[in-house]
């Protein structure tokens, strides 16, 4: 047992609080100073035992609680008392009776005005919710009866509701509403109420129950009532415990005591008897009498404070189990027996006291106490919460808008030397690196001219410098070089060489540079180790030897990451300039970081990304921690405190940066001004003195700690503990160090090096384990902000006494923590090492949910709460990694539950978590469907899994975009190892919950696919092919490429709107393009095999065959593949190895002419004026059943673009276009973008405006110009964008591929009013995957159809329906698209070219359709979508879509590709074309 615990048991919350002495007079001063928190002293002088008096009140301890010992093991409340709030409101003139956070961030506050004689009791209710229909639904409680009574005194406007309640309207003001109730009936003891928004039928409740407000008792009723003082003492203790066991001043103790008395008096006035009150406070009915020992008189001779301490020792040695009340009682008696045994040996109480403090009293603790589960709570009961309560939508502004000018940096002398040397040596350079050496630089440049290896070293050191070097045939070894390679003046030593740097021979350099050139002709050497010497001092690379790698792929090669694009460049360069100062100590680094916070804030998201990268490089030991500077630990912790205070302020003021701020905090550590940091320095001396270990390793560590403590000290301390626990096995010491990145070389690199290994005696074991365990808490309090134990201790508070010169530490509990929160943290602490982690995960997440409201508001202790939340978040990741084994035999329900837990953890940490919240709701629905045995539960769960993966991929892209450029640029400036830069983003992702979640999804995916009978493939275009395998990252990057042999592309990403490259016979991907996306249609048209593979093992096997020829043989649901070898290669040539540049004959177009009209109505649509899109929609009008809607249409016919361009008002535009077309003809494809931009500069002739206005109005369409000139300009811009899309890259290369004359392509514009769709759909009236003409295939998305046909990630809802049974569609897949597009009433301008739907060439989808107004992107919540949740609604809508497809196919007499929307249950068809 630690001495600090022995000296102040109560402040550690390890044993019961001593109970204060009662006062004989009710109106006395109350509680004597400090008696409420009187500590047990164990350092009293010899001879004091006779006069020693137990601090326990004899009345409370010996009588009121039947001599029950007071002991609470762990941090639980004492078992003697059932803590209970007797009253919610203290007596005062006006009190805050309650404050509640309701759903939707609504706050409710209740205050009560205590009545004076003759006055009324006032209840004021305020809610941060404004509505004209808000009512208080209320009643009163009289004489402790539960039934409501209706007071006669009522606020204005109050109405009687069915003689059961009163309803009073709130008064609204700004964003709040108020109501005041006055009570004049002294018999009314409480008011109960609910709040109702009558217009929305929305109730606000108190966790499903009434809000209950107890009213203060009138003073005149209390005057003639008294209450026993022992009950006042008990109530005062309960109040202290409820408030977090804070340390009170004498004045506060007095106030608390009198407040406790008033609460009890009010209970008695309300009719509670003293006996009932006593039973309530002491749980009297549950208690049993303690059997008195036969040696009663002897037993009582042992003071209770000694028994308490001995009980603690037993509990500690038993592994700190959670004891029940009866077990605590037995433990207390066992401790007494042990002390009694000592007393019977003739040992005096003073000697017993001394033996206790040294831990020398023998105890017998049963091993089963350490293991049996019934000593602890097995599981918490999680509260039911609406996931929407944790919704965050804080998005940082785009950083591209910030334009920070940066002066170009002057090149350093070494950089000038680099340029001159590279120019001289040409292209033979293998690698180079510039090391920062304080304010100087060292260049290492390796190149291989003519088979030789030449090494240049250069530095701007002014002082004489010696290179101490060797060569290596194995990386890292030191071999003496052959004499032939030694530069002039070198001195050959044993196993190494010394060569002096000389002034550079490059005479044109403006600055002096010292350099050495070494040339090696012999083969077999792989590298060169070296160190430098100057003025008798050795110069190393962060404590290790420098090493030059001669290979081409050196991990140390420093890349040039350009001009810092995508970073807060000015800030990063400032950081690099200050790194020399920052290297001195953590104090310097943290103070510099604090000074840069405001600059980071001004730079926005990228500014904080720069700070994070810098701190992360520090935390991963890529930067020097301490260099020739002594600093006290308290100064380091003070600097940490300053930095973390500023970060805490940013967290509150800028919620859009919270995620990055959390990551920065996790790299810094908590800090703490003053005593906590100083204790690092003092406590190590006490450990050495107490355990007689003042020399060797402990003294070297002590010197390091005094000089410059660092996070390494936490690892060293743990290594020492592991060494002692392993029965002094020194390999355990080194394993802990090495596992955490501390090598022998690193120990030697400290300014105060650690040379020795620990060497302790066996009799030091218990004392060292005790003291190092306590010291670990001190170290973690400063260095380990994300350590769970440290974070919990800081939040719940602790006090540790000093010894001699060592300062004491007192951390008060954080006030106003949620009710039951300390017990929840205790549960987490007790289960953190459990192998079965489900209960632990629930506890960790419940704790995060409980403190979340506190993290969103100002709080003096917000930083401690943040570190606690970070620690809880990190512990979830650790627990799930430990719990993978638990899931080996688990069913899908349990895996889904674990997925939802980790997803919740991730959502609680993100600034913008809307997508994850809807994924969470999806998993909740999937679990419910699974438990209810729904037929499609696995299919639905698969869609939620796919969406979750998309969300994780989006998060990874954010890391890559925001963090990686800063890591690369700052890494270059600071000469960080290339490998550390390359994996920076990957390591940041792995450090969070996303990586663990991804692993679980990978485990669940095949289970769901098997259950849903999905197989490993979705075959979109089933074509048998032979081809050579090529692996690409994304299809978009190669869409313009032409392969010279039949190629099977394995593409990691396929968005859906790409072109398929020439020479490609198959595209296989893990991505999820829609079956009816552009690329899918293109694959079927071009007879290209196209499929999605869900099995990563199959994909890996396919990738392993890169460069080989495969034979793919697909069915509608699977793909068989095999490697083609030998004679099969020749046979396969007859299949599809013949190279084809395109169709045998080029597709021809007839150039269209302007027909003299700028606009036409649908009854004027002909093949000479408009394309098939316009003609087909006009054909449907009046021919389809009335339940199918057809939008009204007009068009700008062929030739209008050319006519407008030839108008005099656009002469300059026409001339510029002519020049750009010539440029394009010369294969300068950058001209395409310039052409599009130039087309947008055209002006509209007046005649076009007037004709279009007339046609639209005559057709019943709204004219944009009626809403103002700006609206017409919007419409005109949309028209021009449609024309300009003729020159988009995809369309241009597609037409050229089939040798279509691009100049002959003409563009009409179909104009339609947008139907603000609930859903959009695409129908293929012949199933495109199977070719089954008896079956309709369709896909449906929420909102506009652009998310279906455009490059929007995720899958649509897909279904098939037999044409002979249209009432029963069958869902094939549920939607996983996270985004829906919605728009106000508007106009859309659709492309309608003469190049669409030609035989042998499908041009549909190549050109743009542009709405006049921009659609709003909405993150979709499928959990409230009737199409997903309502089976009858789903069947009705899908059946109607299928019926519409059949009707239109029958009209045209051939298979159709149909687009349409659903609005309020009605089907609208907006276009149709022949299915290709």
List keywords for this structure.
47 helices; seven-stranded mixed sheet; alpha+beta; 1476 residues
Principal-axis shape equals globular
- Work out the number of β strands: 45
- What portion of residues belong to β-strands? 15-25%
Which structural class do you get from the secondary structure elements? alpha+beta
Largest sheet: 7 strands, mixed
What portion of residues is helical? Answer: 25-40%
Contiguous low-pLDDT stretches (5 residues minimum) are 1-92, 284-300, 366-376, 400-408, 553-559, 1137-1145
CA radius of gyration is: 40 Å
Treating each run of at least 4 consecutive H or I residues as one helix, how many helices?
47
Distance between the termini: 82 Å
Mean pLDDT value: 80
Order of neighbouring strands in the sheet with most strands = 25-29-28-27-26-30-31
Please explain how this structure is put together.
The protein has 1476 residues and is an alpha+beta fold. 39% of the residues lie in helices and 17% in strands. The chain contains 47 helices and 45 strands. The protein has a 7-stranded mixed beta sheet. A 7-stranded mixed beta sheet has the order 33-45-44-36-37-38-39. A hairpin with a 3-residue loop joins strand 5 (159-161) and strand 6. It is globular. It starts with a helix and ends with a strand. The model is unreliable at 1-92, 284-300, 366-376, 400-408, 553-559 and 1137-1145 (pLDDT under 50).
């Amino acid at each position: 047992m630690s001495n600090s615990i022995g000296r102040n048991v109560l402040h550690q919350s390890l044993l019961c609080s001593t109970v204060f002495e009662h006062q004989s007079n009710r109106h006395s001063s109350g509680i004597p100073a400090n008696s409420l928190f009187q500590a047990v002293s164990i350092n009293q002088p010899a001879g004091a035992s006779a006069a020693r008096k137990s601090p326990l009140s004899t009345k409370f301890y010996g009588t009121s609680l039947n001599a029950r010992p007071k002991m609470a093991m762990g941090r639980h409340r004492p078992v003697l008392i059932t803590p209970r709030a007797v009253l919610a409101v203290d007596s005062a003139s006006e009190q805050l009776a309650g404050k509640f956070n309701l759903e939707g961030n609504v706050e409710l506050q209740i205050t009560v005005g205590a009545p004076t004689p003759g006055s009324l009791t006032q209840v004021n209710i305020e809610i941060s919710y404004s509505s004209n229909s808000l009512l208080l639904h209320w009643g009163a409680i009289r004489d402790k009866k539960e039934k409501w009574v209706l007071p006669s005194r009522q606020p204005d406007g109050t109405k009687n509701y069915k003689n059961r309640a009163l309803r009073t309207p709130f008064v609204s003001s700004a964003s709040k509403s108020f109501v005041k109730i006055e009570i004049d009936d002294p018999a009314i003891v409480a008011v109960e109420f609910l709040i109702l928004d009558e217009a929305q039928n929305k109730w606000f409740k108190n966790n499903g129950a009434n809000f209950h407000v107890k009213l203060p008792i009138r003073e005149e009723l209390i005057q003639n009532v008294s209450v026993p003082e022992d009950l006042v003492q008990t109530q005062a203790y309960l109040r202290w415990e409820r408030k977090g066991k804070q340390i009170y001043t004498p004045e506060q103790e007095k106030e608390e005591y009198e407040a406790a008395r008033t609460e009890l008096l009010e209970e008695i006035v309300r009719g509670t008897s003293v006996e009932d009150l006593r039973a309530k406070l002491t749980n009297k009915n549950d208690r049993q009498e303690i059997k008195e020992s036969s040696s009663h008189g002897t037993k009582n001779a042992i003071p209770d404070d000694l028994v308490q301490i001995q009980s603690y020792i037993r509990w500690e040695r038993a592994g700190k189990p959670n004891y029940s009340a009866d077990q605590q009682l037995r433990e207390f008696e066992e401790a007494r027996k042990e002390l009694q045994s000592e007393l019977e040996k003739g040992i005096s109480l003073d000697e017993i006291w001394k033996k206790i403090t040294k831990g020398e009293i023998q105890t017998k603790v049963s091993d089963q106490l350490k293991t049996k589960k019934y000593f602890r709570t097995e599981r918490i009961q999680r509260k039911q919460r609406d996931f929407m309560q944790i919704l965050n939508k804080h998005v940082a502004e785009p950083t591209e808008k910030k334009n920070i000018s940066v002066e170009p940096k002057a090149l350093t002398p070494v950089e000038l030397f680099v340029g001159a040397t590279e120019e001289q040596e040409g292209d033979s350079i293998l690698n180079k690196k510039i090391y920062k050496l304080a304010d100087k630089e060292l260049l290492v440049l390796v190149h291989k001219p003519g088979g030789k290896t030449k090494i240049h070293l250069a530095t701007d050191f002014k002082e004489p410098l010696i290179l101490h070097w060797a060569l290596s045939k194995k990386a890292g070894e030191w071999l003496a070089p052959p004499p032939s390679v030694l530069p002039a003046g070198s001195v050959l030593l044993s196993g190494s060489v010394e060569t002096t740097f000389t002034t550079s021979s490059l005479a044109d350099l403006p600055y002096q540079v010292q350099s050495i050139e070494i040339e090696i002709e012999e083969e077999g050497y792989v590298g060169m180790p070296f160190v430098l010497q100057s003025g008798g001092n050795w110069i190393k690379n962060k404590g290790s030897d420098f090493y030059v790698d001669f290979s081409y792929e050196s991990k140390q090669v420093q890349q040039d990451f350009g001009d810092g694009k995508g970073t807060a460049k000015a800030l990063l360069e400032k950081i690099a300039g200050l790194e020399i100062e920052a290297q001195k100590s953590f104090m310097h680094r943290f103070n510099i970081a604090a000074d840069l916070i405001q600059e980071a804030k001004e730079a926005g998201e990228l500014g904080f990304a720069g700070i994070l990268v810098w701190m992360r490089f520090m935390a991963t030991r890529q930067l020097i921690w301490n260099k020739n500077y002594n600093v006290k630990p308290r100064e380091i912790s003070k600097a940490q405190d300053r930095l973390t205070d500023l970060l805490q302020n940013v967290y509150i003021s800028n919620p859009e940066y919270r995620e990055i701020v959390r990551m920065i905090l996790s790299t810094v550590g908590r800090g703490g001004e003053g005593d906590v940091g100083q204790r690092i320095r003092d406590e190590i001396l006490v450990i050495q003195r107490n355990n007689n270990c003042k020399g060797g390793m402990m003294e070297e560590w002590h010197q390091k700690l005094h000089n410059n403590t660092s996070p390494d000290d936490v690892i060293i301390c743990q290594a020492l503990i592991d060494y002692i626990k392993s029965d002094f096995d020194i390999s355990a010491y080194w394993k802990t160090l090495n596992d955490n990145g501390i090598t022998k070389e690193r120990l030697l690199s400290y300014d105060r090096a650690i040379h020795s290994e620990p060497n302790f005696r066996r009799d030091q074991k218990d004392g060292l384990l005790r003291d190092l365990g306590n010291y670990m808490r001190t170290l973690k309090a400063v260095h380990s902000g994300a350590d769970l134990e440290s974070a919990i201790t800081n939040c719940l508070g602790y006090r540790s006494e000093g010894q001699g010169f060592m300062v004491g530490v007192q951390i008060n509990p954080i006030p106003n923590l949620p009710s039951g929160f300390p017990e929840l943290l205790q549960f987490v602490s007790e289960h953190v090492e459990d192998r079965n982690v489900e209960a632990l995960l629930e506890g960790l997440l419940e704790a995060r949910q409980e403190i979340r409201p506190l993290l969103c508001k100002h709080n003096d202790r917000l930083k401690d709460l943040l570190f606690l939340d970070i620690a809880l978040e990190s512990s979830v990741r650790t627990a799930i990694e430990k719990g993978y084994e638990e899931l080996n035999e688990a069913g899908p329900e349990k895996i889904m539950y674990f997925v939802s837990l980790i997803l919740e953890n991730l959502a609680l940490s993100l600034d913008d978590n809307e997508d994850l919240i809807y994924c969470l709701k999806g998993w909740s629905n999937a679990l419910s469907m699974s438990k209810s045995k729904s037929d499609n539960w696995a299919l639905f769960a698969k869609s939620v899994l796919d969406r979750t993966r998309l969300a994780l991929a989006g998060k990874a892209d954010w890391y890559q975009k925001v963090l990686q450029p800063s890591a690369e640029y700052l890494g270059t400036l600071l000469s960080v190892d290339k490998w550390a830069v390359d994996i920076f983003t990957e390591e940041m992702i792995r450090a969070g919950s996303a990586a663990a979640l991804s692993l679980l999804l990978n485990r669940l995916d095949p289970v769901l696919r098997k259950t849903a009978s999905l197989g490993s493939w979705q075959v979109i275009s089933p074509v048998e092919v032979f081809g050579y395998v090529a692996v690409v990252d994304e299809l978009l990057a190669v869409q313009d490429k032409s392969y010279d042999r039949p190629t099977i592309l394995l593409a990691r990403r396929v968005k859906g709107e790409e072109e398929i490259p020439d020479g490609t016979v198959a595209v296989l991907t893990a991505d999820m393009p829609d079956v009816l996306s552009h690329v899918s249609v293109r694959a079927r048209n071009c007879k290209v095999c196209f499929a999605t593979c869900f099995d990563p093992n199959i994909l890996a096997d396919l990738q392993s065959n890169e460069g080989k020829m495969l034979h793919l043989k697909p069915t509608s649901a699977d793909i068989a593949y095999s490697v083609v070898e030998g004679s099969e290669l020749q046979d396969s040539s007859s299949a599809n190895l013949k190279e084809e540049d395109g169709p045998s004959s080029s597709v021809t177009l007839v150039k269209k002419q302007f027909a003299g009209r700028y606009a036409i109505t649908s009854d004027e649509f002909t093949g000479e004026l408009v394309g098939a899109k316009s003609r087909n929609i006009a054909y449907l009008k009046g021919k389809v059943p009335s339940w199918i809607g057809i939008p009204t249409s007009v068009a700008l016919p062929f030739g209008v673009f050319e006519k407008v361009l030839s108008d005099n008002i656009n002469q300059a535009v026409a001339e510029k276009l002519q020049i750009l077309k010539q440029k394009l003809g010369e294969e300068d494809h950058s001209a395409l973008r310039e052409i599009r931009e130039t087309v947008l500069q055209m002006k509209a002739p007046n005649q076009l405006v007037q004709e279009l206005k007339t046609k639209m109005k005559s057709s019943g369409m709204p004219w944009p110009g009626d809403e103002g000139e700006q609206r017409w300009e919007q419409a005109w811009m949309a028209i021009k964008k449609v024309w300009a899309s003729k020159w988009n890259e995809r369309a241009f290369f597609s037409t050229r591929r089939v040798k279509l004359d691009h100049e002959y392509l003409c563009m009409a514009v179909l104009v339609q009013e947008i139907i603000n769709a609930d859903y959009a759909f695409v129908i293929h009236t012949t199933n495109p995957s199977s070719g089954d003409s008896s079956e309709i295939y369709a896909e449906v998305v929420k909102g506009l159809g652009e998310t279906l046909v455009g490059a929007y990630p995720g899958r649509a809802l897909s279904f098939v329906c037999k044409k002979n049974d249209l009432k029963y569609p069958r869902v094939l897949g549920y939607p996983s698209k996270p985004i829906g597009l919605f728009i106000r009433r508007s106009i859309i301008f659709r492309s309608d070219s003469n190049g669409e739907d030609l035989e042998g060439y499908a041009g549909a989808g190549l050109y743009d359709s542009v709405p006049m107004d921009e659609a709003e992107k909405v993150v979709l919540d499928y959990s409230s979508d009737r199409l997903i949740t309502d089976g009858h609604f789903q069947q009705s809508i899908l059946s109607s879509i299928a019926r519409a497809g059949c009707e239109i196919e029958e009209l045209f007499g051939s298979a159709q590709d149909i687009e349409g929307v659903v609005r309020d249950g009605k089907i609208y068809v907006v276009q149709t074309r022949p299915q290709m």
